[in-house]
Amino acid sequence: MLLKHWAVIVSFICISTQFDILPSSPKTYKFVQTADGQEDNNLHIMVNHLTTTTSSKKNNHNIYDFFNKHIHMCKSTVKSIEQAKENLGSILLGDRIYELPYTQDNEIVFGVDKSCQKICSSTISTEDANFINNLIVDNYQYQWFIDDLPLGSHYTIQKSHSDEQPEDYYSNSFGVGIYDVENEKSEFYKKPLIFNHFDIVVEYSKYGVAKNEKIKDNTEYVVVATHITPFSIKRNDYKSSKNGKKNYCSFTGHPKELLLDKQTDIVYTISIKYIENNTVPYKDRWDKYLALQKMIISNDWKNILVLLCVNLILSLATYKLVMWNMNKYKRQNAVEKTLDMEFDDDHGWKLLLGDIYRQPGKLSLLCTLVGSGIHTLATALIISFMGASGILPVGNRGLLATASILVFSLLPFITSFTSMKLYLLYEGRLFKRNMTLNCCLVPLFTFGLLLSTNISNVVKLPSHIHSPSVIPLKVLIAFIPMWLILYVPSALLGSVLAKKTTRSDKQPRKVNKIQRLIPPQPFFSKMIFLCILVSALPFSSVFLIIKHTFGNDILISGLIPKEQYILLSVSLIVVAYNCFIMGVIITYSLLIFENWKWCWKAFMTLFIGMFGYTFVYGCFIIDAYHNIVKYLALGLLLGLICGSFSFLGGIVCVKKMFSEKGHTSDRLV
Length: 669
Fold this sequence. Notes:
Blueprint: H1 2-16, E1 45-47, E2 50-51, E3 63-64, H2 88-92, E4 98-99, H3 101-105, E5 114-124, H4 126-137, E6 141-142, E7 144-146, E8 149-151, E9 154-157, E10 167-170, E11 174-175, E12 177-178, E13 193-194, E14 197-207, E15 220-231, E16 234-235, E17 251-254, E18 264-276, H5 287-335, H6 363-388, H7 399-410, H8 412-425, H9 431-460, H10 473-500, H11 527-534, H12 536-540, H13 543-550, H14 554-557, H15 562-592, H16 599-622, H17 628-657
């Protein structure tokens, strides 16, 4: 059976690497200008917030609005600032996209080069100069876009084999300035230098040539790549030239420093150059932006697969060992039974028959948490399949988060169905309480987490009330109708189906009226010890994926190759399987020591352990403290998945151990 499951996974990997769904029709441009179509032929540069992914030394905030008053990027003098339309996930992740004032005020016609055009000028105070210098030191990045393609630096990636040709790579952002910490002999060693000139290269190729071969003047073009080269340039003082144009581009050959003892005047300029590149088809235009991520995955692909295989072998061997010990214990007790012993219920874990089926405390909460963990895993696997098959287009910012929210909102019947089945398994009677928790627990907790994060950002940063990290109130309110229209009906449907499909004609199970006292437990059965020891194996299956997927902002930018979705889905399946085996081991160990209160311990051990490993690894090894919310949420999700499958493993363990007791254990299906 296990081989069949893995055959399906391998087949999915092979098929998904060949299958792709092409994106919708691209935006096309022409060199021939018409009076009615000239606006559609204009190029627009969009800008997003400033952010950093490195450890912040000078700032306690990792995201700033592009038009923050302390950064001094001047606004349009002709039109008011209008925020671009964004999807729900993009807003939640902090995107605040506007048009660059230069392209908003001027007509940038496709194919017409621009040389050293002024964006804006400003006077920076000493306090703001210190603030911008801190941004440069902390490697804050601009995020600009042309035709949805990010503007970043151009690099050359050298392959691992020397005989392979190097590959071009375009990053998805560029720095606010340069901070040299390597060349000690430089005059500007450890001096922040601000970028104030931007050379932009737009690569384009022909589109639809086959159907327009005879009408060459109407040939359409698409943008296939964009990259930028920023410069820090100290300019000469302003002088009027003979033709009356402002002399913004009289360079001196020295970089620009922001002064800390007096105000600094600065002028931002831009140049745009168009290059035809017919070697890159439109559908492959994201390859250069994914080159680095693909190289990282290819280098770690074997390591991850070996790690996953080792985890599977270890967990399977452990499971077989536990089953062997369990069966051996049963046979031994059956052989040692004498005529003086009417029952074989008085040895070891068999003493627990009268208490093993007792309802755990807070049964509705436990059942809802287990159902939510399975619901979360199903959502992650569906999103991974959509990404691997090409349904989620590359580079669409926030689309991954939006799709995750919608899929999660459409599948709560998984939570309610599983929860109600488990609730009826333990003969719960408060059905309305269970249904209410299924409808409200996860949505209210998530809403409370978003609200508390918002309040924390507002209170902690009073001077940055308009920071992109603060979610608008209208967006938070939009979750209420989504919850009422999508989540609640699906959750109620799952509860009703579970109740209707559960048989109620079975005999009651044997449960003693007086609870059996639990003997003193060994030190290694303590919660802290179990969390550290037991959670290590499941976490080892996913820590590399966390580093490559969540350590950077590729989830926000949407720059995720299909191979990474495949690795993510396979890792989650292995983690769930490992946690299932760990649940069997935890439950078996507790029952051996006559501890019948295994339910919450099996769940909480993996929940707390995976949460702790993920949170510590993310905040203190991968990223700085300012990403605490990201790893808090990720740790909770992984902990919920692991705790749920650990509990299911405990149920299987109990069924296996007490299967000889006839109909009293048949209820554990």
